[in-house]
Design goal:
191 residues, six-stranded parallel β-sheet, 6 strands, 14% strand
């Protein structure tokens, strides 16, 4: 992780201490191993997902409490369904990280919810695009810088506390009542 005017230092210090690493150890961008990259490619081929042309949806986060936000509302559900429909219309293949099994009725959508985090990360890196509620997987993807990612916060308070700006490659969107799917795809095209 390269520091952006010192903003990443507390993050680095926290992980060095948490993992018992020397304070002078260097961080590098996370990348899937070659064997995981091969497994991800095989998984994508087997499931009809296009490399660099798949949108991975991650509508549900368990790493931060979102029970009070739009994450549980009909507006939130319909927003992700609209993003799914627009992606299909634009020729993307779509996968969803949904181990809660809430999105059962998405035709031609591969569920990634039962995969371990290493393989999930490798698939997201190869997919090219991700639209996610702010969650733990966002940190890995943001640090890697290999996937165009729209991160959606259910409220401004969560955005302030869990911002990904410490990662120079991170680009974020804030979900609000006026956001449209067109804004998500314009965001992908411009990033």
């Amino acid at each position: 992780i390269s520091a952006q005017k010192g903003k990443a230092r507390p993050f680095r210090r926290f992980f060095r201490k948490l993992l018992g690493l020397p304070m002078n150890c260097k961080f590098t961008k996370p990348r899937p191993s070659q064997s995981l990259a091969r497994l991800a490619t095989q998984f994508m081929i087997t499931n009809g997902l296009k490399e660099s042309r798949t949108l991975v949806l991650c509508p549900y986060a368990r790493s931060i409490d979102m029970s009070h936000g739009v994450n549980t509302s009909e507006e939130f559900e319909s927003f992700f369904l609209s993003v799914y429909a627009q992606a299909r219309q634009l020729g993307f293949t779509v996968a969803v990280n949904d181990n809660l099994q809430k999105q059962k009725n998405l035709p031609k959508c591969v569920n990634l919810g039962e995969l371990d985090i290493d393989l999930l990360f490798a698939i997201i890196c190869k997919s090219g695009y991700m639209c996610s509620t702010r969650s733990g997987i966002c940190d890995l993807v943001a640090m890697s810088g290999v996937t165009k990612m729209a991160v959606i916060y259910p409220d401004i308070g969560l955005q302030r506390r869990f911002v990904l700006k410490q990662f120079p490659s991170a680009k974020e969107l804030l979900l609000n009542g006026s956001m449209t799917t067109a804004e998500v795809f314009n965001f992908f095209a411009s990033s």
